[in-house]
Please model this.
Amino acid sequence: MRQPLASRSGFTSRIYSATVEFEATASRVWKKLPRAERRLAAAAFLREPVPELLASVLAAIVRTRHVRPQVARAMVPEEQATALAGILDPGETLAGSLLVALHLAERRPLLAAFLDALGIPHENGVMKDGGEDQAPDPARVEQAARELEGRFPAAEVELYFNVLLLQDSERWGALRGLGAQR
Model:
């Protein structure tokens, strides 16, 4: 019998009064996303691809679609995004980049609202230099999360918090125990 995720990953939280079990890897987060969200993330990534990862994208499409590399390269971006969205295990690095692309392209208002509530300087949801120096106070993190309640879908907030934890678990560690004292 498998252990509950919370005991495997150590990332457990409560958001909007529901228990949230954060995933420990970007690959696991990617697998759990609905295909429509994976499609949005893939399309966002392909609009501004990370050059170092483009070869990984094409290799994953070649492997799963059983096509030649030149066919994958010749696909229009929409077709590549659809193919990429169908890949459940693109690899940890690519999965992380896809999740970041989703948030930077599709969820900037959420990012900006959270950083505003924390008082962290940012430009349209991207932290400015100097805003990344220290972990925010856990009480402020909880208050900021409560301010998001009702403004954004809980699933989007949970995904954002999981991505933050994956990017920097020390800085965003307060998200793990979010709401536990409620």
Notes: Confidence is low (pLDDT under 50) at residues 1-11. The first strand starts at residue 12 and ends at 15.
